[in-house]
Design a protein that fits this description.
Layout lengths: L16 H9 L15 E5 L9 E8 L6 E6 L7 E5 L7 E9 L4 E8 L12
Antiparallel strand pairs: 1-4, 2-3, 2-5, 5-6
Length: about 130
């Protein structure tokens, strides 16, 4: 049976690289908690996933991130289905767009407006 150890966590008063370095100098391990228990972003494209008709890629875009292309997922007929789940960090509420490229050269897209209540990409403590 696994040996379980408990760790005590304390919130830091400051955020950013400098605060993390100060924690390391003090002999502590700085931690970052992502997701806050929120479900991951899931993109699923209905497709027969045959050699003649399949999804070749899904691109996830974020309109307000410095690099708008958040992720690209590639598929082949052997993938069986075109479904992915991932977590992304957003600094502000924005639209997330998923663009699917199909084997016939066509593109499908869908979008969702995401509301960020506590930013994950900020340097300041909120």
């Amino acid at each position: 049976m696994a040996n379980v150890k408990q760790m005590k966590a304390v919130a830091r008063p400051r955020a950013g690289k400098g605060a993390a370095r100060a924690e390391r100098r003090a002999g502590r391990v700085p931690g970052v908690i992502y997701g806050d228990g929120k479900p991951p972003l899931t993109v699923s494209v209905e497709s027969p996933m045959t050699a003649a008709d399949h999804v070749t890629a899904v691109h996830v875009m974020s309109e307000r991130n410095p690099d708008p292309e958040v992720a690209t997922f590639r598929f082949t007929p052997r993938s069986g289905r075109a479904t992915v789940s991932t977590r992304i960090r957003l600094a502000d509420s924005q639209k997330i767009v998923a663009i699917a490229k199909l084997s016939d050269g066509s593109f499908w897209s869908a979008s969702i407006d995401v509301v960020v209540t506590l930013a994950a990409c900020t340097e300041d403590v909120i």
